[in-house]
Amino acid sequence: MNVEGLLAQITALLVALAGAPLVMGWVNMCRAWLQNRAAPPLLQPFRLLHKLFWKESVIAHDASPLFRVAPYVVFGCMLLACMIIPTLSTNLPLAPAADAIALVGLFGLARLFISLAAMDIGTSFGTMGARREMLIGFLAEPAFLMVLFTASLISSSTSLATTVATLAHREFAIQPSLAFAGIAFTMVSLAENARVPVDNPATHLELTMIHEALILEYSGRHLALLEWAAALKLFAYSCAGLAIFFPWGIAEARDHVALLWALPALAVKLAAGGFALALIETILAKMRIFRVPEFLATAFLLGVLALLVHLLLGA
Predict the structure, then answer these.
(1) How far is the C-alpha of 184 from the C-alpha of 101, rounded, in Å?
(2) Which of 198, 193, 182 shows the shortest CA–CA distance to 148?
(3) What is the pLDDT of residues 110-167, one digit of tens each?
(4) pLDDT score for 281
(5) pTM over 0.90
(6) Do residues 159 and 95 touch, judged by C-beta distance below 8 A?
(7) Which residues pair with residue 89 across a beta bridge?
């Protein structure tokens, strides 16, 4: 492991920890502006985390050790996922050991633990949220894999660092396969991050909430870790989409000049992506939970079309 790679990996870790709440705050600000409401401060997620970390965690008497361990496992999985994705540089020591399939596995492991923890207490809301979360994951993961496989076929590698380096050197052109994959990725990202139209992150209505039902029994530092993990998941999906479909600005190995420009480029792309997400949540209405399988089946179909278009047409 070279020193430059270790430095790039540590920088990516720090950027993820600090940037994830900022992205969440920026999306909330843009959504408030678009809805003609008073916008919360950009640093509001940090204030929320600070308040929760200083509060006492209240745990049910019949909670098992799984309930206590789940927030740390979920947070660790999301943080490791952010370290796998090339956010600033492709010179990542974890790149040879973890590829796109491992990334999907990390998301699946976090989903498993948070769902089991939600059912551990035995409340009806936690069980309902866990069942809905597993249903969404069961339908979203194949579509996400199709998107990653389409990008992997272009670079002939499942390593995200190799894929990003290959796509960054291609001539600028609108490829049909990546266009289909981009739409599928957007639909999967909305579902996986519990955003409108699949879920409303601001609601506490028992009959419609998914993510909030999973963390309803948590408080204090455990709730802070889960909220931070949710922000890290949104950050990871945003960086994965930017790395695959907009790889410009990501530095390559031993390119010190590009590394200096990588952070401003990432900030600009995340700001544009956050505004687009807020716009989508403003113009769309939340769909019924029974329509979510159709929504994700469409994403899977678009992912398969992207794969077939690349295999048959090479475009």
Answers:
(1) 17
(2) 182
(3) 999 999 999 998 888 888 889 999 999 999 999 999 999 999 998 888 888 888 888 8
(4) 92
(5) yes
(6) yes
(7) 251
Inter-helix orientation angle 3-34/220-245, to 10°? 100
- 220 CB contacts (<8 Å, ≥6 apart)? 52, 53, 55, 56, 57, 58
| CA–CA distance, 2 with 93 (Å, rounded to integer) | 8
Distances in whole angstroms, Cα of residue 305 to Cα of each of 63, 218, 313: 45, 41, 11
CA distance 106 to 113: 11
| Tokens encoding 131 | 């069942």
CA distance 189 to 303: 13
How would DSSP label each residue in 8-25? HHHHHHHHHHHHHHHHHH
Type of residue at 5: G
Taking CA 227 as the corner, what is the angle to CA 131 and CA 114, rounded to the nearest 5 degrees?
Answer: 30
183, containing H or E segment: helix 176-192
For residue 51, give the amino acid letter: K
Reported confidence tier of residue 291, pLDDT bands at 50, 70, 90: very high
What is the structure's pLDDT at 201?
A: 80
Distance CA 302, CA 186 (A): 11
pLDDT of residue 256: 67
Q: Is the distance from CB of 268 to CB of 108 less than 8 angstroms? A: no
Per residue in 52-103, pLDDT (tens digit) is: 999 998 888 888 999 999 999 999 999 999 999 998 888 888 777 778 899 9
Structure tokens at 256: 């010190």
- Is the confidence at residue 206, as pLDDT, over 70? no
**Is-cis flag, bond preceding 264, omega within 30?**
no
How far is residue 120 from each of residues 91, 108, 204, 216, measured CA to CA in Å?
41, 18, 21, 12
Q: Among 47-51, 156-160, 295-299, which stretch is predicted with the lowest mean pLDDT?
A: 156-160
Angle at 83 between CA 79 and CA 87, to 5 degrees: 120
Hey, CA dihedral for 27, 146, 85, 52, is it positive or negative? positive
